[in-house]
């Protein structure tokens, strides 16, 4: 078994049991950051960040100022659809090489 790797995530350090998991996690976080910077609005980023940190939809309502958890839920669904499109396009670029 590989030596554990320490990974910095959201300001905390956690142990990752193998390097492959660590690399996948870093790549995923980089991909999400690229998506957030280029493909969604500032308001959507205000929803995405706390959601990725584990906040509930109601907590995001209180933090961001939407009127209902349903409205946040709908925005999260649209963000997820946009992310799916982003990942598909990125994967297609890789296949086209």
Mean pLDDT over the full residue set? 83
Number of strands: 2
Query: Main β-sheet, in a few words?
Result: 2 strands, antiparallel
Q: Structural class, from helix and strand content? A: mainly alpha
**SSE topology string:** EEHHHH
Q: How many separate helices?
A: 4
Major sheet strand order:
1-2
Task: Assign an overall shape.
Answer: globular
User: Could you tell me the strand content as a percent range?
Assistant: 5-15%
Helix % is over 70%
Low-confidence stretches: 1-11
Radius of gyration, Cα only, in angstroms? 16 Å
- Termini separation comes to 34 Å
Task: Please describe what this structure looks like.
By secondary structure, this protein is mainly alpha-helical. The protein is built from four helices and two strands, in the order E-E-H-H-H-H. It has helices spanning about 20-40, 40-50, 55-65, 70-95, and strands at about 5-10, 10-15. The chain has a two-stranded antiparallel sheet. Helix 1 (about 20-40) packs across helix 4 (about 70-95) and helix 3 crosses helix 4 (about 70-95). The radius of gyration is 16 Å and the shape is globular. The relative contact order is 0.10. Mean pLDDT is about 85; it is low at about 1-10.
């Amino acid at each position: 078994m590989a030596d554990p790797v320490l990974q910095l995530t959201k300001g905390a350090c956690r142990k990752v049991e193998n390097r492959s998991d660590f690399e996948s996690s870093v790549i995923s976080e980089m991909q999400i950051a690229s998506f957030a910077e280029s493909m969604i609005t500032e308001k959507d980023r205000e929803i995405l960040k706390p959601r990725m940190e584990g906040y509930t939809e109601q907590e995001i309502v209180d933090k961001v100022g939407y009127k209902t958890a349903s409205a946040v839920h709908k925005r999260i669904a649209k963000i997820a659809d946009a992310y799916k499109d982003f990942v598909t396009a990125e994967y297609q670029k890789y296949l086209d090489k």
